[in-house]
Amino acid sequence: xxxxxxxxxxxxxxxxxxxxxxxxxxxxxxxxxxxxxxxxxxxxxxxxxxxxxxxxxxxxxxxxxxxxxxxxxxxxxxxxxxxxxxxxxxxxxxxxxxxxxxxxxxxxxxxxxxxxxxxxxxxxxxxxxxxxxxxxxxxxxxxxxxxxxxxxxxxxxxxxxxxxxxxxxxxxxxxxxxxxxxxxxxxxxxxxxxxxxxxxxxxxxxxxxxxxxxxxxxxxxxxxxxxxxxxxxxxxxxxxxxxxxxxxxxxxxxxxxxxxxxxxxxxxxxxxxxxxxxxxxxxxxxxxxxxxxxxxxxxxxxxxxxxxxxxxxxxxxxxxxxxxxxxxxxxxxxxxxxxxxxxxxxxxxxxxxxxxxxxxxxx
Length: 363
Ligand SMILES: NC(=O)c1ccc[n+]([C@@H]2O[C@H](COP(=O)([O-])OP(=O)(O)OC[C@H]3O[C@@H](n4cnc5c(N)ncnc54)[C@H](OP(=O)(O)O)[C@@H]3O)[C@@H](O)[C@H]2O)c1
Known about the structure:
By secondary structure, the protein is of the alpha/beta class.
């Protein structure tokens, strides 16, 4: 007897949400049963159109959260923004867990390492699990599989290890998010500007959980988490396709690390290198090709290096990364649906082969 399909709702249809609709549509065990949107002009539109598919899926988007949840979906991908509205995002997630849904999301940084989340955040989620029987798994690509299960998998073939370094190396030239790029990351700002993304404590808030997850899996003790930040200025004004000019003398590249200290030295390191143009900081790490990559380097014997370059939505590397974040989350739903209700992290949830996902001929 084949198991019934798992009715799955997508909440939010931005970068992550539209990839989630496509991933559910392609998954042999899942069925898209609803789409929740925030913007009124998306209400009533077909999910296939919102996801950039060339066909309708027969599910229309709704702004009525309660009506969609009243159908008690078995699963829900929470893809509404959480970095700027974490409390509201958690309230939304609690609603879905209360109706018994398995919730997967990349939206709440403090919950990637849920075991170490503050009690005032975790306790209401545990109460919702008890009350409704749903579950929660928070993950993505970075933070996410690029700095939890990928390095851990590769560590399994090492002889001895000095440092595990996880890198995200991205050129934002084609990234159409001017607010994030200019304000949050500080590209194009004077060199005395302090980018909020690297304000003291913020990198640890976002990526510290990943360091703890890796240490837990490796049986290592983290003594301390440290941060480093470096910035470089543009030597020439550069013109981007989507965001206009970035002036000579302003910030053109940002590099930061979150370091897990073991035996007094950085041994588990998460590093980000972000540029607005490849001409800035050419001596810093570069992706092997194109605009971006995730990389794991295990310094030790043997030295091991793995780079991952994902592309989607017309050869776009950011979309490729987002699609893999979604793959990790949507791919976990059927496993979570069979597991006990609860809060899960990336060490708990296995990454399994893509059973049944070879595209149908002609699809
Ligand atoms: N860890 C990772 O690897 C990773 C990767 C990418 C993103 N993320 C996280 O995932 C989340 C989604 O990212 P994204 O790139 O998809 O963002 P996005 O493209 O900006 O989309 C976010 C969506 O949130 C909805 N939304 C906006 N304001 C809202 C509000 N006030 N109330 C309810 N919904 C609202 C909108 O939905 P509608 O358009 O449907 O109305 C919007 O499209 C973010 O929190 C981001 O930090 C994590």
